[in-house]
TrEMBL record:
In the C-terminal section; belongs to the DAO family. This is tRNA 5-methylaminomethyl-2-thiouridine biosynthesis bifunctional protein MnmC. It holds the Pfam family Methyltransf_30. Coiled coil: none annotated. The lineage of its organism: Bacteria, Pseudomonadati, Pseudomonadota, Betaproteobacteria, Burkholderiales. Its main location: cytoplasm.
Amino acid sequence: MTEPLIPATLAFRDNGAPFSRQYDDIYHSAVGGLAQAEYVFLQGNNLPARWQSRRVFTVLETGFGMGINFLMTWAAWRADPSRCERLHFVSTEKHPFSRDDLHRAYDATVSDPSIATLARTLADAWPFLVPGTHRLEFDEGRVTLTLVFGDAGETLPSLWLRADAFYLDGFAPAKNPELWTPQLFKQLARLAGDDATFATYTSSGDVKRALLQTGFEYRKVDGFGWKRAMLVGRFAPRWRVRRHDPPMPLAVDERRAVVIGTGLAGCAVIERLTARGWHVTSLERHDGIALEASGNPAGVFHPMLSRDDSVASRITRAGFLHALQRWSALVDAGHPLTRGTSGLLQLAGSEDEARAMSASLASFGWPAGYVTPVSRGEARRLANTDVANGGWFFPEGGWIDPATLCAAQCAAAGSRLERRFGVHVARIERDGNQWNVFDERGQAVARAPVVVVANAHDAARIAGLRYTTTVSVRGQLTVLPPGTVPGLQLPVIGEGYAVPLADDLTLTGATYDLDDPDSSLRANGHEENLARLTHMLPGLRDAIDPLKAAALDGRVAFRCVAPDRLPMIGALADETEAAREALRLRGAWPLDLPRSSGLFGAFAYGSRGLVWASLGAELIASQIEGEPWPIERDLAESIDPARFLLRALRQGTVR
């Protein structure tokens, strides 16, 4: 069960130095935080020289604190004409500041105007204080800050990245011993790249011994300010200290990719790859984008809550928060989206459920800007109509027109995207270090070192997967005529949903018909949608009862769903090689599995494409580029397309 975050409390000593009441220690030297960051961490890791002319450079920090080290690293990167193409800064923090306190801290301590500007930008982008991984992008995505909120002893094992430099900056070992243990340094060794360096202000004997035990070598140098000595060094193990080497970028001669499918999944991948400089050819069997399930007139987006904060809850929370970041970036770049901005109301199935969930939300300590429990009376006021029960309100949830999102993502890709419509992909085939893509007539239609199958039901078939199964779910939507749901200003969801559209129309649905290929509208489907709606919103019964179901408008779409209801996102397994090695792989873990080089999947999004697509695309792009993953490794493994192959291997059923 996820532990609630306890935010830091902003306090200052008499000399103006910010300090932590939890640890009774200062956040940085009273001599100056900016100067300390420059001397200890940048110079201690020989930066910026070591990142120059690199494509990607990754810094891993233990203890984000006020973020001074990140700000100084960002400023140094900006000032360096030979800087790396992309800078990743990953940092853990058990007690993050609130956004308001971060602004106050910067106003009180950062006097350099150029750093103050960056500090305001960071504080403005500060995420909700909820546990997990938060990815923020700056300077058009060339600087990425990945914040991991939670206890480092628990969060560091969940990271997957290749660190080039370590900033060891927890509170003093005597005050915060948990950040200086051999167990923690073992996790750093697991993530260290070749010749990774480290720097820290401390020269404690316990720290030196822990470094040596885990494969690091150190040397003492003059300390900063009043400290006599500090440590710098590098990862230089004399023996093998880890089972798997940290991730590397995919070896390709040129950065070209083929993305099959242009719904929510495919368009998100297109945007994330082209943002990194890749040239993408999109293949779509229809004559335009977002014409299947992604072509619905509106879709709702919100996190999924559970009383135990399950894997599904954690992955939807991560996807929801990442989607909000990416959508804002699209709008800021001049790519408008059609979406609601009034929040989303979710109704409980009963008053008992509403009370139990309210108690659960309180125990997690979710911030009000993320989710707020509401009574039946408060829910009635928000919905502007009678409701069956209380529930919870998501201020940042809502509805969006998926087609406008897909269009914005393709527009953001610009000239790096080649669109090809009317192409029916039948199969793909590896040829050396390239993939050939063939149509239904057997003609090669595209060739690239990377292929992403993002075409829902056809993805597993095209990729030749036997152990990755999905089912088709027919969903019929109903459009209610003007005046049926007067005054509805925000989406209401529960057993069904009601979404206000333009021209006073209301969208409701959707049916869940397994393996039903009928694409025509059916009266009984409309009746089912209306029954769920009136049970959820009983005040609408008088307006809905006279409606003739057979005369209602609507739409039918087909959702692709995995047996465990989680998406398929990431590198695809080489099932042929796995079958040959089935005995050896019977006790395998995801990192042990052979993968099909350059082949990735983004499908089985079910009804949560809006929540999962952006995060899934970021994960795939990060895997291709060898960048830090945007979510915890256990979450990435829960959506790994190879998870069903892994189960079959463990059960001994792979032949």
